[in-house]
């Protein structure tokens, strides 16, 4: 195991760290999915912005994780890229 993996494993034992890590992991997964949808559609940020009716800088902020998008914004983003928005709430039955 690498030193980074060992550190992560040790830190994940701390419940406060785990909550913060999982929240950040979810945000990064959303950002990655947005960028992947746009690139799969072969759209620039400017082209996507025009389809949605916003500015390129608004798309850049969204893809950088600097804003918390509404479900409506995510839906429009998905539709403009030819993707489908799916929202899932996962829970741990053990807790």
Average pLDDT rating? 90
Approximately how much helix is present in the residues? Answer: 55-70%
Question: For the CA atoms, what is the radius of gyration?
Answer: 17 Å
Overall spatial form:
elongated
Q: How many distinct beta strands?
A: 0
End-to-end gap: 28 Å
Strand proportion, as a percent range, falls in: under 5%
Helix tally equals 5
Structural class: mainly alpha
Largest sheet: none
The H-and-E topology, N to C, reads as HHHHH
Q: What are the segments in which pLDDT stays under 50 over at least 5 consecutive residues?
A: none
Care to describe what's here?
- The protein is mostly helical and 95 residues long.
- It is 65% helix and 0% strand.
- The chain contains five helices and no strands.
- The chain has helices at residues 3-11, 15-40, 45-52, 56-64, 71-80.
- Helix 3 crosses helix 4.
- The two termini are 28 Å apart.
